[in-house]
Amino acid sequence: MEQWYYINSGPAGPAYNMALDEKLMDWHREGRIPPVIRFYEWNPASLSLGYFQRVERDIDLEAVKRHKAGLVRRPTGGRAVLHEDELTYSIIVKEDHPGIPAGITEAYRVLSGGLLLGFKNMGLEAGFSIPRTEEEKADLKSPRSAVCFDAPSWYEMVVNGRKIAGSAQTRQKGIILQHGSIIRRFDEEKLFDMFLFKSERIRRRMQAGFRSKATPMEELMERIPSPEDMRAAFVRGFEEDLGIQLKEWELNQELKEQVSHLAISKYASDEWNYKY
């Protein structure tokens, strides 16, 4: 059985979280580590922007400061996500790894299968989102808002048609990074307060429709599993779905210093975060 690494890196700042995902890509490309599945959290609560997202058009930076939230630009595309009471995952694997489809959409389906089984391990009958109507497909091409959970994309996790986990993917020099948020609870007012809208009326209309499109775990379960139990459920899910064995792995001090250096030099810099 093929062995992948599993990392529980716990809570960290936004720049460090993105830097670690990038360094894992580098180390896997260099052959220093096998494919990796990582789980992490955010401290402080942080807004992550899609790679091409325009800050001044979409984000209320004063509100971000007012809520004492972090901010970072992801290396992946998509729309902004508020990471607060959630479990975040990332998968790092080579594009030519056996069993990984060449197409991005199909790769989403394969790499997200472990999430599907993980939710079922926790008693939630989640399924894949498959945009079918012309309106749903149009929303993907021209999103109505800058909020990530406003609509599900291909093969994201939904329960009763409402998005429970959002994912994004990038491919760099032969390596796939897919990462995403699994929402335990969300503060809807805080979330929408951090985005810019053309008018308060539009903001309220978008916010009113948000709950019909997204759902946190707290609305679906009598008791939300702890992050520890969630990680265990998803580890079993990924092992079963991908036919792999996950071996827990920790960074040594040298590797942690490499991540910290990249976090400071790139992901904490205004040059990176305000590039668009």
Question: Your description of this structure?
Answer:
- This protein has 276 residues and is an alpha/beta fold.
- It has one domain (2-273): Bira Bifunctional Protein, Domain 2 (BirA Bifunctional Protein, domain 2), CATH 3.30.930.
- Helices cover 37% and strands 25% of the residues.
- It has helices at residues 14-29, 55-58, 61-66, 104-111, 113-121, 134-141, 188-193, 200-210, 227-242, 253-267, 270-273, and strands spanning 2-12, 36-42, 46-49, 70-73, 81-83, 86-94, 127-128, 157-159, 162-172, 175-183, 244-248.
- It has an eight-stranded mixed sheet with strand order 7-8-9-10-6-2-1-11, with helices on both faces.
- Helix 1 (14-29) crosses helix 10 (253-267) and helix 5 crosses helix 9.
- The protein is globular and about 55 Å long.
Overall average pLDDT: 90
CATH class: Alpha Beta
Radius of gyration: 18 Å
Describe the strand arrangement of the main beta sheet, using strand numbers. Answer: 7-8-9-10-6-2-1-11
| Architecture per CATH nomenclature, i.e. the level-2 architecture | 2-Layer Sandwich
CATH homologous superfamily title: Bira Bifunctional Protein, Domain 2
Q: Percent of residues in helical segments?
A: 25-40%
Topology, number of strands: 11
Order of helices and strands: EHEEHHEEEHHEHEEEHHHEHH
CA-based shape: globular
Low-confidence stretches: 140-146, 148-152
What structural class should be given to the helix and strand makeup? alpha/beta
Put simply, the count of helices is 11
Distance between the termini: 44 Å
List the SSEs and their pairings:
Layout: E1 2-12, H1 14-29, E2 36-42, E3 46-49, H2 55-58, H3 61-66, E4 70-73, E5 81-83, E6 86-94, H4 104-111, H5 113-121, E7 127-128, H6 134-141, E8 157-159, E9 162-172, E10 175-183, H7 188-193, H8 200-210, H9 227-242, E11 244-248, H10 253-267, H11 270-273
Parallel strand pairs: 1-2, 1-11, 3-4
Antiparallel strand pairs: 2-6, 3-5, 6-10, 7-8, 8-9, 9-10
